[in-house]
Amino acid sequence: MHCPAHPECNTTCIELFISTSSLPFFVSWLNPLFRIGYKRRLEEDDMYKVLPEDGSERLGEELQRHWDHEVQKAAKELRPPKLTKVLIKCYWKPYAVLGIFTLIEEVIKVIQPVFLGKLIQYFENYDPDNMDALYEAFGYAAGVCLSTLILAITHHLYFFHVQRTGMKMRVAMCHMIYKKALCLSSAAMGKTTTGQIVNLLSNDVNKFDEVTIFLHFLWVGPLQAAAVLGLLWVEIGPSCLAGMAVLVILMPTQTMFGRLFSKFSKTAALTDNRIRTMNEVVSGIRIIKMYAWEKPFSALVNDVRRKEISKIMSSSYLRGLNMASFFAASKIIVFITFTVYVLLGNTISASRVFVAVSLYSAVRLTVTLFFPSAIEKLSETRISVRRIKNFLLLDEIVKSEHGFLQEEKQEPNVEIQDLICYWDTVNVQPLSPVPPSNFPQSSLLSAILGELPHDKGVLKVKGQLTYASQQPWVFPGTIRSNILFGKALHPQKYEKVLRACALKRDMELLPDGDLTVIGDRGATLSGGQKARVNLARAVYQDADIYLLDDPLSAVDAEGQFPICRRAFGTLKSLCLFPCVSRCICGILKNKPRILVTHQLQYLQAANQILVLKEPVQTVVEESRSEGTIGVGLYVKYLKAGANILYNYMVKSSASKCNILKWEIFSGLTGATLIFGFARSLVMFNVLVKAAQSLHNRMFNSILRTPVRFFDVNPIGRVLNRFSKDIGQLDAALPWTFVDFIQIFLQIIGVVAVAASVIPWILIPLAPLIIVFLFLRRYFLQTSRDVKRLESTTRSPVFSHLSSSLQGLWTIRAFRAEERFQNTFDAYQDLHSESWFLFLVTSRWFAVRLDGMCAVFVTITAFGCLLLRDQVEAGSVGLALSYAVTLMGMFQWGVRQSAEVENMMTSVERVVEYTELESEAPWETQMRPPPEWPSQGLITFDRVSFSYSSDGPVVLKDMKAMFRPKEKVGIVGRTGAGKSSLVSALFRLAEPEGRIYIDGVLTSEIGLHDLRQKMSIIPQDPVLFTGTMRKNLDPFSQHTDEDLWNALQEVQLKSVVEELPNKMETVLAESGSNFSVGQRQLVCLARAVLRKNRILIIDEATANVDPRTDELIQKTIRDKFRECTVLTIAHRLNTIIDSDRILVLDAGQIHAYDEPYTLLQNHDGIFFKMVQQTGRQEAVALLQSAKQVSSTLTQQSMKLQRGGTVWSSVS
């Protein structure tokens, strides 16, 4: 990162700015950046480095120390810890000092009307010969001008520093939240969700940016009101009490609005729910599409969003009332004050009117806008702080040290004796001893890792651990960075690991070798490649003890054998049965290894075999382009322009109140109030509905886009739009938009009134408007890019969080928490660079606008004195008061218009996702017959397949036929195209060539008509948060009896009956309270329910134990006897009894025949794969294939005698 045009000054110029920020043009150091931004688009390298005192690590650790101290102190005092107290203790001193700026600004606001009144009095008592009075008037004019200039400086100094303080609090809190997420225990993970943590980081922490701006007005407001009351008493006597009474009434009314707003704005839980669902949808989009479940998920999200919008709409109406009351307050106050003043028999003078109006305007801003905003933001922040505190108080994993002291010379070992562990201490279910179909083996590894606390028994670990998880975890980055995982690169060792893990060939095939960037969730790699990278990471670590949780279940037999031989070694290993892994001979031969596996053929290489049984499963209840909003919306906005007429007439009446009838004045005031309130409510209604519409369109677009989109876009990028950007559309953008429109209309009214009374005021105003508009354009060229950078630098924060939560056990097993925390801090610092730049560029713009306004006030004030013989006191009062009003209003209007345009980048980003490439229609006019497919005949006719138009072809000119009721096994090395064949069949991307099912060309029918007629049991079983019933039957198409029968078929009925609410039990996020095997059985139950003629099994038994595998195979043979079944498998024993086996290699058909026939070809891939399972297993597989061949021959002879020949079908 460097300073534009001056790389050597980097942070120095910012530090200089901080130290000299009392100067009027204290942001002139930004000029080079604006020049660059005006010429070209800004890039990340153009941003300034974050200041050391704003760094994420420094801020986070400081707040963490205060929080840890508070937690310890609260524990001693037997009370809950208070996060608010910690925040105050950490930040109160620097924040309190900023109150001085506020006080100075508000004092000057009170003094300025006094100068104005004295100046108008000079014109009321004008005497051309009184030079002393003239000199005194020049002094008052100078006072008006100087106070305007000082106001501008103090205002922007205050706003910059309080916003920077808010940024520091937000950054520190994000650091703590991420640090806590890395430490959460397994029980605590069941009490929160990824969606909730993302919401804490995206929306809750943003309250600190908002509350710091207004907090000081809680004490400044009452003080200023008292001072104004005193001055008004001197000016107009007791009549001021009437106007102040209105303010006194408005203050508690606004306070009530603030509290009501807090009540109606409790959308956080609903937002958590929506983002969690979005996280699950994006993570499981492939399964959702293959099941054709887009509609129920759309209904689920729309239902949550509807409830969320209902709350947002209520709070927006309150915002509208709040805003309208602020704009109406001045009219009510002036009307009541001078009505009482006239009724008391007083005579109105110009000086009294304009002094009173100016004083009321000063206090009105504080009392009716800033003061209630402070209450509103404080209420919101308290809710957010409470949510963050609850998260920070969740249970943490107990860390233990397994390393040796330097002087110790011991053999690494794991000692376990009489161990009893509980996943949930409330629903007490022990880890051991239990029957063999669940996941006690993985639980044992969890206990050794420290993830599962033990209640009784002995568990001692001596030595440094490393871990390879059952479900491969890779993080976004290069393959090399995934393998090294923070370790230094040693080329020889690295090459040895690549060979041992059978990755050399993959590195040669990938375009950039080991520097190929892995997409989110490893989207660019096959399942087997991810598994081998996951294993290589563990092997590369120089650890004492290796914990390997069935790491090669997704690897084909051809790949398993060399890995086992080269990597694991033969001795010092413990295999856990029935989840057994391979420990043959290689890199780790001298290391203790505890391996969990399902591959029984490698048991003979183990030193010891530990047989575990399973417990009853514990269930933990989850506490749960540039785009515009649309022409129609702008038309509705422009209708509010009718209000200009009323503003004009009311403002005219203020200057000529002694002429107009009070009845007319009253009528105009009433009309202004009615139309003002109606305008605010209508505009907020329209904008919130626009946000709802854009969200729904974006979500529908996400559901309809091809899966390739999710392979190349990190989950954080998608969630960023559904959390932060939609949050902007829901809350910040409507308020800013409405504020800009109202200010814009008021400016038109003010200028029209002023010009009608004093036409010469247009002379300085015209060039001022031209300069303003040019400056706005110049500013937006840079500001828009800065805002876009702020949005794009936010996405990596969410992606890193999501990726970290997925690989939490691996990160902790490798003791990599600190490194991942540092990466998170680096992403935060990058975002802080853009956010800081956004703050200072806004001040750069505002200072220049206010400076020009101060010049305008100066010209007007001294111009009146120079033209003293031609102007009246009333005209001078109007000109000066409007000049001061315009000074604040005009620059605020221009800034708000720029802010609206900046916020439109969120709309732009949302609109971008509403226009994503769409896959084929879900339904078309050509509908297949209701009973289709009745046979299950599948024909591939010269089919080629690629996941994208510019991507590699993964299936090449494939011709194959799958006969009705035929059971076909599909095998091949990792990356051969097995899963791509399934993707082509389900049209996850459009294949070239033709695929027929029972004679129907699949490319001519709708995707839902196609996908709903095929069942799939996926490689990675996916369950969604929701009830077990919804996971089985989201369309509610089946009876309870059907659901229970399906569960009975897959032997899950007893498990579900033991759940607290049986079928209505809400599952944890991603079904994490079920084992992998149980999740796979749920997927099988779905297939049983659908009763389709075609079933695809995509390596479904890769991660389950032999008993579950056998159960799945038996169910398939019994329940799907009349179906065409395509089985992709790495375990050859699961497909050796197939009617035929399709062997793929590099996207082409290598062989397609009966298993026994294939085994006769000793040069074929299938024969080699069988041989690599080991001698004993190979003999068993050959015998099974021979038996199948004999059976098929007998069946063929029977069919021939019956006059039916299979070949006639093919």
From TrEMBL:
One of its GO terms (cellular component) is basolateral plasma membrane. One of its GO terms (biological process) is lipid transport. Its main location: membrane. Residues 96-359, 664-902 form the ABC transmembrane type-1 domain. It is found in: Apical cell membrane; Basolateral cell membrane. Its cofactor is Mg(2+). Its EC number is 7.6.2.2, 7.6.2.3. It catalyses: 3',5'-cyclic AMP(in) + ATP + H2O = 3',5'-cyclic AMP(out) + ADP + phosphate + H(+); glycochenodeoxycholate(in) + glutathione(in) + ATP + H2O = glycochenodeoxycholate(out) + glutathione(out) + ADP + phosphate + H(+); an S-substituted glutathione(in) + ATP + H2O = an S-substituted glutathione(out) + ADP + phosphate + H(+); glycodeoxycholate(in) + glutathione(in) + ATP + H2O = glycodeoxycholate(out) + glutathione(out) + ADP + phosphate + H(+). Gene3D superfamilies: ABC transporter type 1, transmembrane domain, P-loop containing nucleotide triphosphate hydrolases. Residues 392-639, 938-1171 form the ABC transporter domain. It is a multi-pass membrane protein. Pfam families: ABC_membrane (PF00664), ABC_tran (PF00005). GO terms for molecular function: ABC-type glutathione S-conjugate transporter activity; ABC-type xenobiotic transporter activity; ATP binding; ATP hydrolysis activity. PROSITE patterns: ABC_TM1F, ABC_TRANSPORTER_1, ABC_TRANSPORTER_2. The chain crosses the membrane at residues 95-117, 137-160, 181-201, 213-234, 241-261, 323-344, 353-375, 664-688, 760-779, 845-868, 874-894. Keywords: ATP-binding, Cell membrane, Lipid transport, Membrane, Nucleotide-binding, Repeat, Translocase, Transmembrane, Transmembrane helix, Transport. Interacts (via PDZ-binding motif) with SNX27 (via PDZ domain); this interaction accelerates MRP4 internalization. This is Multidrug resistance-associated protein 4. It comes from Oncorhynchus mykiss (Rainbow trout).
